[in-house]
Amino acid sequence: MTQNPEYAIEVTNLTRRYKGFAAVDDISFTVRKGEVFALLGPNGAGKTTTVEIINTIRKPTSGKVTLLGMDVTQKKYKIIPRIGVLPQGFSTFDRITVKETLQYYSRLFCNPNTDINGLIALVNLQDKVKVQYRNLSGGLKQRLGIAVALVNDPEVVFLDEPTTGLDPRARREVWKVLLGLKKKGKTLFLTTHYMEEAELLADTVAIVAKGKITAMGSPGELIENNANYLVAMLKSVDENVFEIVRNMGLAPAYDSQGHIKVRLTHTEDVRRLLNTVKDSGASFAGLDVRKPNLEEVFLKLTDEPLAQGFVRIKGAE
Amino acid sequence: MKLHILHANIIYANIIVSIKSFYREKTVVFFRLAFPVILILVFGTIFMERDNEIFDLSIQDLDRTPSSEQLVEAIRLSKRFTITKVSPAVDAKTYAKTHKRNLIVIIPKDFEMSMMQKMESDTFGTPVSLNQLYDPSAFGVTTKLGVLDMVLAGINQEMSGKPPLIVSEPISILKKKYRFIEFFVPGIIAMAVMTASLFGAVNVNAELRQKGVIRKLFTTPITRIDWILSNVLYQFILAVLSTAVMLLVSYVVFSVSLEINAWLVVFIALDVFSFVGLGMILTRVAKEAESASAAADALMFPMMFLSGTFFPVEMMPEFLQKFARVLPLYYVNEGLRAAMVSVDHAAALKCALTIGAFAAVVFVLGSMITTLGGEST
């Protein structure tokens, strides 16, 4: 892969091993300038290791990574002033206020012209300026973390699981801030295990599982290219239906509302499913059949059962 | 991670944040500034009285004659004892146990008669005896017996009407007379700076590492040297502040006579460098905040008690004195006392060179193994 000025990030055959275990296994991809790129994968897939190699915190075992045209293993101190990082589980000095925190990080970047008030407004923390970090809620802490990642007006911003651990409302507030950055044309590199987050924010999504990229493209492309099946959902079913569906050789799963979801490879499977359940005399309130969404595509690509993702996504982790 | 040049503005930013974090945490302010002062006030008060100590003394006069009363009065006039009279009707041993007396002087029933006989015969025969009932397990009773012997010797000499044949004239090796508090204050300064530097380096670094703050700092232009120097300078500023408070209280409350000179700053700086360096090594080796703190405790306590902070090492057995001389705090204690009490520049220089060599080794080692990132680079 040759260096291209169009790309902010170029990753070529990147591998990172820990005691023989490949956390990142020979992955390659590029991120265009001004693009929002999401690395989507379950916990332990290698997302954080990948992002930490790109933003110079870790060293790769092999492969090459260039960021803004510079080798990340050679030019750390030239790269750092041009990037912003929100690490996973961002934390800062407990007894320092919101404004002081931003002033501190601004000084670290030797950037006296940072528009501290502008950043505070960007993340909507105007009424928390004098509040110490320890007294902020989880969502406010993450928003401050995003503002900290922007103190040096970076060209590329890395956000490692920016909404993990937040309640749904706080998560949406963070998304609002990130959408604002997207509008400003910043290159954003996002890691997440929330499908909704990737679908809402990202131009390109790379699905990563067990250290490898299993699919990559825009959310629409991923669905289009990988949705070669249908999702059927049986509503308000009696207890026998689950066994009946399984005996058909299908892989049913309960979702969080107690409905049965099942992947169907052929359209005639719909008629077969309906007839089999009807013939058994079991009762059900309705059957929905539709194309899969990104979440269901993700679960298929990462070899996870259909319902598993739902339980995790709906919960406030 | 490469050793890049240091950035003055980054060090300044770190110091400002550290100082703000410090004064906003009241418990830390208390332990850093007030605790050493409390130690000085408590120990200073206890040992201040010891310098001119007046002992309690119980006397049971079984003779109840003018001679025995004169003896009691003579002991009282020595001004070394506050006398409590014990009724001749009680059992002295029982009285000592129930009233927690560690020494009762018993004037025997035939005291006056024996005295008269002794004075009339004017020979060197058996002296007139007083009984001393004492508790050998009691703290300070030996000193009390020694003082009583001195007082009785004076009374004996006065009664004999002859001048003493031999007297000793104490000549101090120091220019002025010094009290225990003047020995104690430099020791507390050395100890307070040591504990604050060691625990400051261990706790702050381990906590920030565990919370992920250092991970975030690694994504900024801050270098390892910036971070280490920020830590050292911050600890030095607090050490100077804490020392100023300790000295101020010592001057105001105890009117101490201690010399303030450049050595004081030198020893505070070396104390900070030594123990911040040691703290950095512990943080890196122990990794977990709790185990780093435990290791700091294990290092600190023997140093506190064996390196001459609270009492001179010469009071300890020979093998412990040898052990004390390998402890870095011993040289800070000795150096500060040489600088502030005896004003012996040669001794201060010798101590400064020893602790300076130790500081250089641990500080360089600490700097080499400290990393800001999640893995050694």
Characterise this structure.
The complex is a heterodimer of chains A (317) and B (377). Chain A is α/β, with parallel strands linked by helices. Helix content of chain A is 35%, strand content 26%. Chain A has twelve helices and 14 strands. In chain A, the strands form three sheets. Chain A has a six-stranded mixed β-sheet, with helices on both faces. In chain A, strands 2-1-4-5 form a four-stranded antiparallel β-sheet. In chain A, a hairpin with a 2-residue loop joins strand 4 (62-67) and strand 5 (70-71). Chain B has 14 helices and four strands. In chain B, strands 2-1-3-4 form a four-stranded mixed β-sheet, with helices on both faces. In chain B, helix 7 (180-211) packs across helix 13 and helix 9 packs across helix 10. Chain B is elongated. Chains A and B meet through helix 3 of A and helix 1 and helix 8 of B.
Keywords for this entry:
heterodimer; A: 317 residues; alpha/beta; Alpha-Beta Plaits; 2 domains; 6-stranded mixed sheet; 35% helix; B: 377 residues; mainly alpha; abc type-2 transporter like fold; 4-stranded mixed sheet; elongated
